[in-house]
Amino acid sequence: MTLSAPITQDVHTIPRKLPEGPVNLVGLTRDQMREAFVTAGTPDRQAKMRVNQVWQWVYHWGVRDFTQMTNLAKDYRALLARHFVVEIPEIVSRQVSSDGTRKYLVRIAGGHEVETVYIPEEDRGTLCVSSQVGCTLTCSFCHTGTQKLVRNLTAGEIVGQILLARDDLGEWPVPGAPKDETRLLSNIVLMGMGEPLYNFDSVRDAMRIAMDGEGIALSRRRITLSTSGVVPEIARTATEIGCNLAVSFHATTDEVRDVLVPINKKWNIATLLDALREYPNLSNSERITFEYVMLDGVNDTDEDARRLVKLIEGIPAKINLIPFNEWPGAPYRRSSNNRIRTFADIIYKAGYASPIRTPRGEDIMAACGQLKSATERARKSRAQIAAEAGVTQA
Ligand code: SAH
Ligand code: SF4
Q1: Which of 41, 105, 182, 340 could bond 93 through an S-S bridge, CB–CB 3.0 to 4.6 Å?
Q2: Which UniProt keywords apply (predicted)?
Q3: Is 219 annotated as ligand-binding?
Q4: Per-residue confidence at 147, pLDDT binned at 50, 70, 90?
């Protein structure tokens, strides 16, 4: 089997500062914002307070127009307006599934597009955020993997997805109204397009902004980062972000995982498990989610289930079984419901939670692994995908 795309990172994030124009405040860390304010002429001793004030306007109240930041003096508002903007990416289109899932096609600088998905549930609302346009990795069952990587998102473009979803949900607080504790957008998963750990710094800065208590204020336990297994960045995820970790595991032998998740050739199952064993201690989080896509006849036998249980022994874990979501030209089929249930049962009886993920937003191609922006559609033919995956076509 040959792979046409590299399995390592080959791009860097280009900061989207307009050469001469105003700087976008969205996505700056507190320290970066402070520095920017000082450079723009804010006296050093005032800078921290100004950051606090502007931060609250932008991230707590959802205000983007400096003239509305009424606790700042008029002169200071004018100074800010000369040097800065508060800008988020634009929603190009918005589709709503019959199950209430919303999928946004989002345009970022340079005209590139990513997708963001909002999934309402009874007790929570989860926003599935993208971290890259496309992905350098080529997992053979993933639609995004057939799309070439265009570029990494900036921290502002990642945070911007949260802000635009709150706009669309109408969820900014109203001054004077009682605090509403039941949030429409209560959880974030980094499970959209891209490999978040190949865009570590921007993802970290964006998540720190999302966790900041004076703004969006989501606790680190309400954020889950999903990785295909970029082992060298796992410890940093624990110490620098501290959110929950999900791992795209998907196979119980290196032979099968090499095909499904090709990054396995670089960091195999044993190496990955070693890094995962450290995670709960380093991050003080409870358990790791193992994502396991159910592919008919590929990774779904009873033997696989038993091997999985053996492999993860000693790791506080939950196994999330994902029925394969099909996409045009996909070289796999979803395992039968009976097969998935039997598989889940073996894991459950070994003492691990083994929920079967209900596909959401399938009718609008918003389910796991179906995201792929229209700009880069159909780069590879069905035959090419099948050949790369090493499977014969049905
Ligand atoms: N790049 C990261 C995060 C994005 S993918 C990662 O790979 O973890 C989010 C989850 O959806 C991953 O577990 C991924 O393996 C899974 N997935 C991808 N394609 C899928 C498909 N067609 N059906 C079901 N799950 C899929
Ligand atoms: Fe990239 Fe994740 Fe899809 Fe693999 S599963 S191709 S890492 S987005």
Answers
A1: 105
A2: 4Fe-4S, Cytoplasm, Disulfide bond, Iron, Iron-sulfur, Metal-binding, Methyltransferase, rRNA processing, S-adenosyl-L-methionine, Transferase, tRNA processing
A3: no
A4: confident
pTM for the model: 0.90
Q: How far is the CA of 79 from the centre of ligand 2 (A)?
A: 43
- Give me the mean pLDDT over the 238-257 stretch: 97
For residues 145-149, average pLDDT = 81
Residue 371: is its pLDDT beyond 80? Answer: no
Residue 196's alpha-carbon distances to 47, 73, 132, 361, 389, in angstroms, are 32, 40, 7, 22, 23
128 is an annotated ligand-binding site residue: no
**E runs forming strands in 196-330:** 223-227, 244-248, 288-294, 317-323
Mean pLDDT rounded to a whole number for the chain? 89
Catalytic residues: 115, 368
Please give the distance, rounded to the nearest whole angstrom, from the Cα atom of residue 227 to the centre of ligand 2.
8
How many beta carbons lie within 10 A of that of residue 74, not counting itself? 9
Verify whether ligand 1 is closer than 6 Å to residue 321 (CB atom).
no
What are the CB-based long-range contacts (under 8 Å, 24+) for 250-259?
Answer: 250/139, 250/141, 250/291, 250/292, 250/293, 250/299, 251/299, 251/304, 252/299, 252/304, 252/307, 252/308, 252/311, 253/307, 256/298, 256/299, 259/1, 259/140, 259/389, 259/390
Biggest alpha carbon–alpha carbon distance for the chain: 70
